Amino acid sequence: xxxxxxxxxxxxxxxxxxxxxxxxxxxxxxxxxxxxxxxxxxxxxxxxxx
Length: 50
Hints:
This protein has two helices and three strands. It is α+β, with helices and mostly antiparallel strands. The longest helix is centred in the N-terminal third of the chain and has 12 residues, at 6-17. It has one domain (6-49).
């Protein structure tokens, strides 16, 4: 496939090092993950459209 997994690796690295805050949608699926300073470290496509 050759997809770029760099964002996933970065997210795993950040979450492995420190606590991340997940904001879930109504179905319980994470739409955004924030670091302790409330910076967005990951967001799904639906969140980015908002």
